Hints:
Helix content is 45%, strand content 18%. It is of the alpha/beta class.
Amino acid sequence: MATSIQVHIEEPFETRVSPDQLRTAAEATLETEGYHSGEMTVVVTSDEAVRTLNRTYLGIDASTDVLSFGGEPPDFVAPPTEEVYLGDVVISYPQAKNQASAAGHPVESEMALLVVHGVLHLLGYDHVRPEDKALMWERQGAILSRLGLAHVQPP
Length: 155
């Protein structure tokens, strides 16, 4: 079975974001990490929507650039006829645009970084402890290099 990546881009961002680029970033992350099957969704939305999700599910009343909501645990083995649902990656387009401007690269590059970052979270990576952050940033860098975006670095 193959990966299935749904992309949902809310208005008014539909004309500003390429679903194919987001799907490519997610696929590259999954392939690099050894996942050749599974389902997930990437959502591009407003700052307000991300803030509401952050407050509702994480108890943090602030917006952020990307949230990841896991489905099945990464090591869950589904029956052969079923795909594992890895989860959802939700990106605030306004945050991505601001971060891209501050970093001096195109918003498309920032969106790819946020997809990679969010998918790595779905796969169990985290950056709370310094050693975990170092590992996650190394994996992120390798995937961004694979995408031709080695110059894009997280803040």
